[in-house]
Design a protein that fits this description.
The complex is a heterotrimer. Chain A is of the alpha/beta class. In chain A, strands 6-9-10-3-11-12 form a 6-stranded mixed β-sheet, sandwiched between helices. In chain A, a hairpin with a 2-residue loop joins strand 23 (488-493) and strand 24. Chain A starts with 18 loop residues before the first strand and ends with a helix. Chain B has one domain (3-303): ABC transporter involved in vitamin B12 uptake, BtuC. Chain B has helices at 3-22, 29-55, 62-76, 88-112, 116-135, 145-152, 160-178, 180-197, 203-228, 239-250, 261-280, 287-304, and strands spanning 154-155, 158-159. The longest helix of chain B has 27 residues, at 29-55. Chain B is globular and about 55 Å long. Helix content of chain C is 70%, strand content 2%. In chain C, strand 2 and strand 3 (176-177) form a beta hairpin. The chains are: A alpha/beta, B mainly alpha, C mainly alpha. Chains in contact: A-B, A-C, B-C. Chains B and C meet through helix 4, helix 5 and helix 12 of B and helix 5, helix 6, helix 9 and helix 13 of C.
Chain lengths: 519, 315, 331
């Protein structure tokens, strides 16, 4: 790849793009997050970035602001190849990001946040000059036409106002480059009200006057509404480019999920019994918690029900609540006709509920403990005679499950942290199976971070369990996975169940049908 | 000021009113001066602890740091043990020793990544050791008239110690409100990771905060030495804990980034008024420590209550 | 067996693959090595040290410390800390001295029971009020001290008739100090109960990863309260041993044992971050601490250095055993 000798801005169309990414690759153990991404950002444009969960969006953004170091590939800023080692580095090159989870210090004033780390004349000999600080911040806020009081405490502002503060903060990098900065907005609309979103769009259009913007959102209509061009990421690659003028959300979504139908091999045996004909095993009526309201839900024995919904739909909280890990304020839950107590995970365990958390490393497993101890953590009685642990019994149980699930481990005494992600996940799943009494499995992103081989093994296991009559509630990693695995898909939005789509082996809905309900 | 922030102030007012009603001796002007005099050392020590708490860290080193500084100052000003007579210079050295020990806690925290409650516990032991070495079996009495005057001299009816404490609180407030050190200490307690994202290196500020806290403890030790008239290993015995209690009761939360010097000072006054009033109404002074112990647990629990959720990890 | 093989290979290259490093193994053996080095060094400095009587004196001196620290080790294994043990032992010593005349042989079990309840109360406050354990036990420390001062009138309480606790300070078979036997029995019972029951994995899971333990249905709250309860009971028992040898109880009798106890725990190699370690390690730690003290006096160094040494040891030992994967932001 030839380096461009002529750095610096040039007029007209021959000017190099402000930011160019070439063949960016980033792999994590077991997963390829970025698989050779190419991307160009031009001067004063709003570039949309769309893609499903796991398409590589967040890794790409982190690479652009120096939080992730790519394994291969190049990043060029204004024609010059750069290596970004930190957020500071990125800022020096005029790239800044408005983080999804907001990166403001809540107990400082808006002005302090805006100038944080580069106070310049705002601090003299260690003492703050508040008038200067206020002026510096006001200059930034004026750029985006915000009327926030710079000396207000950040945690007294609304979410939308804090977002403005954050944009104003990122705009400070302008002074370091004296050239068009690149501002990245990561899912900026996910927690905003409709009116606030309109205001944000005005800001974005205003930003375009003096900056290039990368706008990331899972709401396709928004992306098409505000962007000049849209890149679609799929499986760690740029799957294509769209001009919103001649596109509609359906086309964009087809690019995001690919042309292939949801894979059939998820379905393994394919002869899953028609679960709807049976009495439901799990019945949820009017369940209400902090993030969900009036949820009604049934899962039959041997049925796999996938719950889908965008960020903020409340499905993760619902899943945790069914395991007693977050509090509920109203509603009834019964398992096989008996009332299920949602007071603690322990009660749920005792009732035959199993839970595989999304955060495997911090919540799913105890890394330094052995495979055997992790596997028998929830069902201690399988290795005990009375109150005493019988090592032989533990060895037998654990070894048999290691064989049954083909868990690749040097032995049952190996610390689980040393296994690959897929094998770790199988141990975590086995934890609920060793007792032989699990009736309901709550799987929160069970294939997150696993490679293809490990995924299909987890799918096979899920099928087998369903075949044995276990009811499964699945929060899938992607729509494809949800459709492929589930007998029924429940769509949640804003904390409520908004649709239920049957999903039989011989009549799978298309992802598009679901997306319509989700947004 | 919100209701929550005003809570400690209201509690202080209530306690004052109750004791004033119960005991006529409590509401004399002389007793007000007594209370402020009794609060002086704790106020200074609490200033230091407050900054550490703002970081979200904890400081258990006051006891040891104060012991070392107390012996140091007693041996450097005119005293009964040796011929030294360095006056103000000796006081300065004692304060600097405190700062050095505080800085050591901070350095160990950022370099070895050992949690602050452990580094400060260790440094406290080191300070006690230094004090015991300096003590060497013979208690050094302070002869220096200047230092003795800190406790005995009065200005406008209040002891010099009271004025020194007031000055410390003022300095602490200015640092907290108007300097980068103070603002960054707030920010580190509020969202440390955001500072890193903004390109701020937090380690030097942490060390600086612990150093400043140590200096406050050093000064507190000098004040205690003036009160007792001699250098004592036990000079700071209960101050680590009392300072944390006062700060927390005043609204400087253990989670960091909340409260401040003025909040903590209200806590100091609350504890001191409580102690003074309880003695006046005839409660054994030995009960005081226990009362403080209960108060801190209740205060921390009350502060944590709104933030509680079921799957929270508390160590 | 073809598909998973690739996964296995991948795991080999993954960042998590390596076994314990040489440094980790060395750290794990460090306590025993330190003990051996100390014994050799002391024997070299003073040949008399290897005589049976001096060795027995060391073991005898280490016993109350070992008992005190062993209980608190369980709390540390769960990821917490108990700073109240020394004050609770002082209070227990006062109670024992006060109750011996009235309760006689029932006095010491009563004291141990009261201390266990005090520990459990702290555990309950920690768990249910969600207060960090060091704050609860710091508060407990001053409450216990305060009670001890009040009930003793801030004075030493002499013991006149110590028949019923004489077992705490005598010789077994003429040579072995009974306190050492008590310590070994206590630690052995604790270790055995933990080892042969599921408590072992419950405690470790709680210490290593409380969130994961809770989501695996482990009664984390009960485990923690239990640990504090045992810690309290051990403080009570240590007080019995102390009263037996001093023929008195005092409101500050055991206060100076806090730092040595914490030092014994961390020198033994129990990680302050929880999960890793064990009660036997604490016994080794208690012996090391005691030998250091003895060693200092043999070498002729002032006792004042003891405190400095404890301070340094605590920080260094914690730094060596810290689980760094867990402390991304150290406060």
């Amino acid at each position: 790849m030839s380096a461009r000798p002529e750095a610096g801005p040039q007029p007209g169309t021959s000017a190099p793009p402000v930011l160019e990414v070439r063949g960016l690759v980033k792999t994590y153990p077991g997963v390829t997050a970025l698989d050779g991404v190419d991307l160009q950002v031009r001067r004063n444009e709003v570039l949309g970035l769309a893609g499903e969960n796991g398409a590589g969006k967040s890794t790409l953004l982190k690479a652009l602001v120096g939080l992730v170091r790519p394994d291969a590939g190049e990043i060029h800023v204004r024609g010059e190849r750069v290596r970004l080692r930190s957020v500071e580095d990125a800022a020096d090159h005029g790239i800044g990001m408005v983080f999804q989870e907001q990166s403001l210090v809540p107990n400082l004033t808006a002005a302090e946040n805006i100038v944080l780390g580069s106070e310049g004349p705002g601090v003299r000999r260690g003492f703050y000059r508040w008038a200067t600080m206020r002026r510096l911040a006001q200059e930034q806020l004026d750029k985006i036409g915000s009327t926030i009081d710079p000396l207000a405490r950040t945690d007294s502002l609304t979410f939308a106002e804090r977002q403005m503060v954050e944009i104003a903060k990122v705009l400070r990098i302008e002074q370091r480059t004296h050239d068009t900065p690149v501002i990245i907005l990561d899912e900026p609309t996910s927690v905003l009200e409709p009116g606030e979103i309109e205001t944000l769009f005005e800001q974005v259009r205003r930003l375009r006057e003096f900056a290039s913007v990368i706008f990331v959102s899972h709401r396709l209509d928004e992306v098409l509404d505000v962007c000049d061009r849209v890149y679609v990421l799929r499986g760690g690659r740029a799957a294509g480019e769209i001009r919103p003028a001649d596109a509609e959300p359906g086309q964009l979504h087809r690019m995001m999920i690919g042309s292939t139908a949801p894979e059939d091999h998820y379905h393994g045996g394919a002869a899953a019994p028609p679960a709807t004909s049976r009495q439901p095993l799990l019945t949820v009526r009017g369940l209400t918690g902090t993030a969900f309201r009036d949820v009604d839900l049934d899962v039959g024995a041997g049925e796999i029900v996938a719950v889908v919904g965008v960020h903020g739909s409340g499905r993760e909280e619902l899943c945790k609540a069914l395991f007693g890990a977050v509090a509920t304020s109203a509603g009834e839950v019964a398992l096989d006709g008996r009332k299920l107590s949602l007071t603690s995970p322990r009660a749920a365990c005792a009732a035959g509920v199993g839970y595989v958390p999304a955060e495997r490393k911090t919540e799913g497993m105890v890394g330094p403990m052995s495979v055997a101890d992790n596997m028998t953590l929830a069902k201690q009685r399988v290795r005990c005679a009375g109150p005493v642990v019988v090592p032989k019994r533990q060895a037998d149980v654990v070894d048999s499950w290691i064989r049954r699930l083909s868990i690749r481990t040097p032995g049952r005494r190996t610390a689980i942290g040393r296994l690959s992600g897929g094998n770790q996940q199988k141990v975590v799943l086995a934890r609920w199976l060793v007792g032989g009494d699990v009736r309901l499995l709550l799987l929160d992103h069970p294939t997150r971070g696993l490679d293809v081989g490990a995924r299909s093994e987890v799918y096979r296991l899920m099928r087998e369990l369903a075949g044995n009559g276990v009811a499964t509630l699945l929060l899938a990693d992607s729509l494809e996975e949800a459709i492929g695995m589930a007998d029924r898909v429940v769509v949640m939005s804003d904390g409520r169940v908004v649709a239920e789509v049957p999903c039989p082996a011989d009549g799978k809905p298309s992802p598009l049908d679901l997306v319509k309900e989700m947004v | 000021m919100s209701i929550g922030a005003a809570g400690p102030l209201i509690a202080l007012a209530v306690v004052v009113v109750v004791f004033a009603a119960l005991n006529p001796q409590f509401r004399t002007l002389g007793n007000v001066a007594n209370i402020l005099d009794a609060a002086a050392v704790l106020a200074v020590v609490t200033c230091g602890t407050t900054f550490v708490l703002l970081l979200g860290s904890i400081d258990l080193s006051a006891a040891g740091v104060m012991a070392a500084s107390s012996l140091t100052v007693a041996l450097l000003v005119e005293n009964t043990r040796n011929d030294a007579d360095y006056g103000v210079l000796g006081i300065l050295v004692a304060v600097l020793l405190g700062a050095a020990l505080g800085g050591l806690s901070g350095l160990l925290l950022v370099l070895l990544k050992v949690p602050s409650f452990m580094t400060t516990l260790g440094v406290s032991a080191v300070g006690l050791g230094i004090a015991t070495l300096l003590f060497a079996g013979v208690q050094p009495g302070v002869v220096d008239a200047g230092l003795r005057g800190w406790a005995t001299g009065r200005f406008l009816g209040f002891t010099h110690l009271t004025w020194i404490a007031a000055a410390c609180v003022l300095v602490g407030w200015v640092v907290q409100r108007h300097t980068r050190l103070g603002r960054y200490a707030m920010a580190i307690g509020g969202a440390e990771e955001v500072l890193a994202l903004s390109g701020v290196r937090v380690a030097p500020y942490k060390v600086a905060v612990f150093t400043m806290a140590g200096a406050f403890y050093g000064l507190g030790a000098v004040m205690v030495t003036s009160q007792l008239g001699s250098g004592v290993v036990q000079a700071g015995a209960d101050y680590s804990f009392s300072a944390i209690t006062a700060a927390v009761v005043g609204g400087t939360l253990l989670v960091g980034g909340r409260g401040g010097v003025l909040h903590s000072t209200v806590g100091v006054l609350l504890l001191t008024v409580l102690a003074n009033g309880l003695v006046l109404v005839g409660v054994s002074p030995y009960v005081q420590g226990g009362v403080q112990g209960l108060i801190v647990v209740v205060a921390v629990a009350a502060a944590a209550a709104p933030l509680r959720h079921r799957n929270q990890v508390v160590k | 067996m073809s598909t998973p093989a690739s996964t296995a290979k991948r795991s080999g290259s993954a960042a998590v693959a390596a076994g314990p490093t040489a440094a980790e193994r060395l750290t794990s053996l460090m306590p025993v090595l330190a003990l051996a080095v100390l014994v050799v060094a002391l024997a070299a400095a003073d040949p008399d040290f290897l005589r049976r009587s001096s060795l027995m004196a060391v073991v005898d001196a280490a016993a109350p410390l070992a008992v005190l620290a062993a209980g608190a080790t369980l709390v540390v294994l769960c990821g917490g800390i108990d700073l109240s043990i020394a004050a609770l032992a002082s209070l227990s010593s006062v109670l024992l001295a006060l109750w011996l005349p009235g309760l006689d042989a029932l006095a010491w079990p009563a004291v141990v029971a009261v201390a266990a309840v005090a520990g459990a109360l702290q555990g309950a406050a920690h768990v249910f009020l969600r207060i960090p354990s060091f704050i609860v036990t710091l508060g407990g420390m001053s409450v216990f001290s305060s009670i001890a001062l009040v009930v003793s009138g801030a004075a030493t309480v002499p013991v006149v008739d110590d028949t019923s606790i004489r077992w705490g300070f005598s010789r077994v078979l003429g040579t072995v100090p009974s306190a050492a036997v008590v310590a070994v029995v206590v630690v052995a019972v604790l270790a055995l109960i933990v080892k042969v029951t599921p408590l072992d994995s419950s405690i470790k899971a709680t210490g290593y990863s409380e969130a994961a333990a809770r989501l695996a249905g482990i009664p984390v709250d009960l485990v923690k309260i239990g640990a504090f309860c045992v810690s309290g009971a051990c403080a009570g028992l240590a007080a019995v041993l102390l009263v037996a040898r001093t023929f008195s109880g005092g409101p500050t009798l055991a206060d100076s044992l806090l730092l040595p106890a914490v030092a014994a725990i961390v020198i033994g190699g129990t990680a302050i971050t929880g999960g890793h370690g064990g009660v036997w390690r604490t016994v080794v730690g208690a012996l090391v601490v005691t030998l250091l003290r003895v060693g200092l006096s043999i070498v002729g160094v002032s006792a004042a250095y003891e405190s400095i040494l404890y301070g340094a040891i605590i920080v260094v030992a914690v730094a060596l055993t810290l689980d760094r994967s867990k402390v991304l932001v150290v406060k």
